[in-house]
Amino acid sequence: MRSKAVESWDASNSQALPVFDVGVAFVDESALLSKPRREVELAIADIKSIVSSILPSDKAMHITPLEDVFSSESNGREGRLRELVGMINDDTGREDLLQCLRMLSLQKIALENGYAKIMLGSCASAIACHVLSATVKGQGYSLPADVQYVDTRWEVPVVLPLRDCLAQELSLLCELDSLKTQQLLDRPCSGINGLVASFVARLREENPSREHTVVRTAQKLKPFSFNKFSANGYHDFLPSRLRPKFQNVDSDESTLSEVLCLICRSPFSESELQNLESTKHKPQKKIDLYTAYCCQSCHFQILPGGANIYDQFFSLLPKFWTERVDTATASQSSLRDQIEDYLLENNDDEN
């Protein structure tokens, strides 16, 4: 990736690849770690040293605390983060929420610094764990959205260039190229995610190719419209020889908009859509609408037990999430006000 970013000949017409610059982002989650602050600072300094030894000195390195996802007006953002995570009783739910906050932090970094895409380091081993854990959590409907090369659900599209590489292969590559790695700040998995990680590790010991088998099986699921390359240019960064492998979005299909979960951005299934529509068409508090915009998995894993504390929970979420629902609701209310005079009452005779 580094060589393609700095060598202009890769942008020749035969390759059809544009020249691009890269930056490195690291989300500092030390506010939630039990490690001494000195160890965390040494680890971050080590990360900076590793990046500077690989990339040219003029490349950007972004280190952002996880609590920065909260609005700048929020006082005590670190305490707010701890309180939000502490309200979740389920270990798996806490890990899933942190994953969502981590993605929101990367989006914030990309938007503030003008990056066009986010490249994640998720490899086949990590994706295989996600496939199995998502199946256990009942996220089968939304699973295809998370295993494709491209995900344009976000304001800044996300790509997975290492999707076909195993963790062992990447570790071997780093060793052969004398690339130092940093694992001190890695968070051990627990709950469902930890059990699945242990299961996949055992599969890897028996036959390393089974991780690829899991990923290839998930790839056979039909992707969503935001996972396909469209005519708006998201396929431009691919070599021309790879483009025929990907299906373009039809013009009619590209106009469809998926309803996404407020927290994890998973697309809603038919039953979840029906529940959302029924909530919209009856008087409700704003907190009821926020709850209806959460998928079933987030209901079970992330939302705290007891509807009486939902108000506090949603008040702690980043405003970016809740404002998105407020904007969608306001748009629908405005549209209904515009056409209200033309709507027929139920007791009107049909002509």
TrEMBL record:
Keyword Signal found: no
What keywords sit in the KW lines?
A: Cytoplasm, tRNA processing
GO molecular function per UniProt:
sulfurtransferase activity; tRNA binding
* Gene3D superfamilies, per database record: HUPs
Question: GO annotations under biological process?
Answer: tRNA wobble position uridine thiolation
Top-rank taxon? Eukaryota
Q: Which GO terms describe its cellular component?
A: cytosol
Has keyword tRNA processing?
yes
> What's the protein called, per UniProt?
Cytoplasmic tRNA 2-thiolation protein 2
Question: Per the UniProt entry, what species is this protein from, by scientific name?
Answer: Lolium multiflorum
